Amino acid sequence: MARLVKNKNIEWIGEEVDEAFINEILKININKDIISKSNVKIVFTPLHGTGATLIPKALQKLGFNDVSYVEEQMKADSEFSTVKFPNPEDRTCKKN
Fold first, then answer.
1. What is the pLDDT of residue 19?
2. Per-domain boundaries in the chain
3. What is the 3-state secondary structure (H, E, C) of 26-54?
């Protein structure tokens, strides 16, 4: 991984990008009162860690308070170890 970053094959984005994204979400939220008055329960699975940092922040800023997270999916896992194969629509990526 370090080599990919060093060779500029991967570029880490910072908090400023996360905040800009969340601010755009907040701009399009047309019924803010509905969220604060609702008792909606959310179960979130971040797809092997891909949304584990950004989505919880966004849900919290939107005002959702009753959110459960699938802990097995909260860590980055490029091996997709909690599923038999990572993309069920693609029959060619079945994991042995």
1. 94
2. 2-93
3. HHHCCCHHHHHHCCCCEEECCCCCCCCCH
